[in-house]
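Q: Give me the 3D complex with pyridoxal-5'-phosphate.
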Amino acid sequence: MTTPYLPFTRPTLDEETIQGVVEVLRSGWLASGPKVQEFELALADYLGGGRQVRVLTSATGALEVALRVCGIGPGDEVILPALSFAATANVIVRVGARPMFVDVDLATRNMDLNQAEAAVTSRTRALMPVHFAGLPVDMDALYGLAHRRGLRVIEDAAHAIGSAWNGRRIGGFGDIVSFSFHPNKNMTTIEGGALSVADPELAKAIETERFHGIARDAEGEMDVVRAGGKYNMPDVSARVGLGQLRRLDEFNGRRRALARAYFSGLKTDPPMQLPSEGDDGHSWHMFAPLLPLEDLRITRREFIQSMHGKGIGVGVHYPAMHLFSVYRAMGYRPGDFPHAERIGRSTVTLPLFPAMSDSDVARVCQAAAEIIAAGARRAA
Ligand SMILES: *Cc1c(COP(=O)(O)O)cnc(C)c1O
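A: Here is the predicted complex, encoded as structure tokens.
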């Protein structure tokens, strides 16, 4: 009997969406047009809070645009967790500012806000927290800190579309909130991202920055008011996003059910360190326990290869960012952020996506239990 390979993630695209894309392709309007407008309004409606939403070609581009419209650049510092995808730190360097890493909490994997406060200097301009795996950062503490110290907040909510804090959706409140629609995320536009803001003037600045710095007067005469970039989303992508957004709550509900199945089914000896459970506001972008490497005689690489041998894909999200060459060159060292480093060394991302079945989860739990049992360092 052959079981199909189970990847760690896979998007769900329905026929209605595919047909909708075909219609856009036949419409003659492929770049930003009516579907982008419709998608932006649908996202604003979904997030709530009377927000302004603007979509872009990626979350990486969105974060960079967010920094630029805040006027953050050379001489400025931005505080962020040492555990995230590299894009979160890279964009800070790309605008000429300095990334100031702080450690994360071992259970929530979110930025330690006490350390963030301690890292504030006279040059600090913004906090850039990540809602890791879709578990919201403590928003009361985050915005309390931002207000106390007069800082902008750019939330990297790449994992958190559909997440909520005390019943309010992430992106439905707050300063600038960035989402990703990469195919690995909870909903996709093929490639794409979005910024949610409260202020229409700030939304205007984002529009200008994302499209060549072009502004038009009442007669439609064109001016270029800043050296803007090119980050506008095509209508084809927006149409994919409209089909995905319609099903986002269903997708996230399924993700929550699968995460619950992991919590009850993932029993290894020695035990893995499981992530925080969160509540119904957790969108479960991924399920990433830590391997008990100190009690094993196998490495993470060997664990991943053995899972692959059993037809199961496993990811690593993420190595601690400050240990990448580009950030070591700025003076960061091993030992600076012990939690991020421990997570970065021992984390494994198990399969989790809406089209998975309960028996897929059981198969992953069984495989992990077998590999860890075989790899356990038994007392003599
Ligand atoms: C995926 C991701 C990004 C970048 O998103 P893109 O849309 O691929 O540019 C940024 N931050 C985090 C935490 C991510 O997971």
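A quick observation: Residues 15-246 form a domain with the Aspartate Aminotransferase; domain 2 fold (CATH 3.40.640.10).
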